[in-house]
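Structure first, sequence second, as always.
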């Protein structure tokens, strides 16, 4: 089928690459000329494992442009994957979505086109996008709006797309559901040949399709993200109790997660969640509920607990060092999680600023996100160090904020000897306390003793 993707970001580009790999003819449109130039040169503007391999593998089915007139006419499906960042009050900023919908409406071809909201949008916006499309659509041809929420995790986006747990499609129009079923058939049947660099998981069977109405599909996205965010905040709340009663939070998480009704994933305690989705989606969900005079205390609590985790890093350092003014604190890891260069709502940014507010000096490092960091966080760029060793040099404490493999595997003893105080705060409970102690460190865990 002919597919148009509007917005070649973390979600749009991954979706386009996967659909092209499945054999569809995909044209990606983006208003960022530089990005389009990079993509035409076969380079990915984002750090996503295997994405460049997939772009190369599916290149014959992929074209990139900044022109809607080139990309939209004749497409069977048009995906909107432009960013919907949060406004200060927590509601999503839909200006990009509405301008994209207008441009799509103006360029729709003569046939039947399914316009799909891939961007996370407030529940009920499907009808709003429909209204914008109708307003802008002057030519012949018909269209219908559908929702097809994404569930991909950055850093695992390709496998989460090709080997997804489920495909959710929402529309109030049976024809659109039919088109999307055909589009995703190879994923549903798992009938495609797996890419050599990303084999099909053992025992992977057919993928369930949830075909429902627009509002339900949109709410599934929010419910899933809010629950994942809640699960993480829950184990972090338990972690605070563990710290007080001297329990081992890792053992507690393990023993809890082995209950098949709970599940072990997303029970990793630490500095908590960041990224472009959990914060934005929980805020949008609360805002939507408020429009109906509904409170969502559980979702709100997951946000409050998550914010508290970042404050806790500073509190722990203050407990240990007694004074933060004039101290030098090294933060290892800036991206919101490993295997991505995405800094959106990254805990490290918050922690660095809180430390600076208290008069501490910070030293910052990340194996992958430094170039993006320089561009997006100019006020903090002067504190970047090229190596972890440079971060450790004469510092009073190190905090592991993002659990990059590079940090887990490095020679910690080399860092201890150059620090003023060999203290390490394990923000993700992933370091081996006995190994760090032997390397000369005083090991602190964020929640509970290890
Ligand atoms: C976006 C939404 O933020 C997220 O809520 C949704 O779940 C998936 O799509 P993401 O892909 O991470 O997530 O956004 P981003 O990486 O910022 O990419 C958006 C792309 O759209 C950028 O490449 C940007 O240049 C492009 N864009 C933005 C347009 O082409 N036109 C616009 O008007 C605005
Ligand atoms: C999330 C959802 O997982 C995905 O389904 C949705 O489409 C987009 O949002 P993403 O934000 O890319 O994906 O990353 P994810 O792997 O979910 O991690 C989110 C945050 O939670 C990261 O900051 C990570 O460090 C943190 N996390 C994750 C924990 O603190 N503990 C965990 O056990 C898991």
């Amino acid at each position: 089928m002919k597919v148009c993707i509007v917005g070649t970001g973390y979600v749009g580009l991954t979706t386009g690459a996967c659909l092209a790999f499945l054999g569809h003819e995909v044209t990606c449109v983006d208003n960022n000329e530089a990005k389009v130039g990079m993509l035409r040169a076969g380079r990915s503007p984002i750090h996503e494992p295997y994405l460049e391999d997939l772009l190369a593998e599916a290149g014959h089915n992929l074209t990139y442009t900044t022109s809607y007139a080139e990309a939209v006419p004749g497409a069977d499906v048009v995906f909107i994957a432009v960013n919907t960042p949060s406004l200060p009050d927590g509601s999503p900023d839909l200006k990009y979505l509405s301008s994209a919908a207008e441009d799509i409406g103006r360029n729709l071809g003569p046939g039947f086109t399914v316009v799909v909201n891939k961007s996370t949008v407030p529940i009920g916006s499907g009808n709003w996008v429909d209204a914008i499309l109708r307003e802008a659509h002057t030519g012949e041809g018909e269209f219908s709006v559908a929702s097809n929420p994404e569930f991909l995790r950055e850093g695992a986006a390709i496998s989460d797309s090709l080997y997804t747990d489920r495909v959710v499609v929402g529309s109030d129009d049976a024809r659109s559901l039919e088109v999307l079923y055909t589009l995703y058939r190879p994923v549903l049947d798992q009938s495609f040949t797996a890419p050599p660099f990303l084999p099909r998981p053992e025992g992977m069977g057919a993928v369930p399709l949830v075909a429902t109405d627009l509002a339900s599909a949109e709410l599934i996205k929010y419910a899933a993200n809010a629950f994942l965010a809640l699960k993480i905040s829950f184990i972090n709340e338990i972690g605070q109790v563990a710290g007080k009663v001297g329990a081992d939070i890792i053992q507690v998480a393990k023993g809890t997660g082995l209950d098949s009704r709970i599940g072990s994933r997303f029970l990793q305690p630490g500095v908590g969640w960041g990224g472009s989705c959990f914060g934005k989606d929980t805020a949008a969900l609360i805002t939507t509920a408020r429009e109906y005079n509904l409170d969502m205390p559980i979702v709100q609590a997951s946000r409050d607990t998550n914010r508290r985790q970042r404050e806790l890093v500073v509190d722990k350092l203050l407990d240990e060092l007694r004074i933060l003014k004039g101290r030098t604190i090294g933060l290892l890891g800036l991206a919101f999680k490993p295997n991505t260069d995405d800094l959106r709502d990254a805990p490290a940014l918050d922690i660095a600023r809180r430390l600076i507010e208290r008069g501490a000096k910070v030293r910052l490092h990340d194996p992958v996100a430094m170039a993006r960091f320089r561009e997006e966080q100019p006020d903090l760029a002067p504190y970047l160090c090229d190596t972890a060793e440079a971060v450790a040099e004469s510092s009073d404490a190190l905090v592991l904020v993002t659990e990059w493999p590079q940090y887990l595997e490095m020679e910690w003893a080399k860092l201890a000897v150059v620090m003023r105080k060999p203290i390490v705060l394990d923000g993700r409970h992933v370091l081996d306390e006995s190994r760090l102690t032997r390397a000369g460190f005083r090991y602190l865990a964020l929640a509970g003793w290890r």
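Margin note: The first strand starts at residue 2 and ends at 6.
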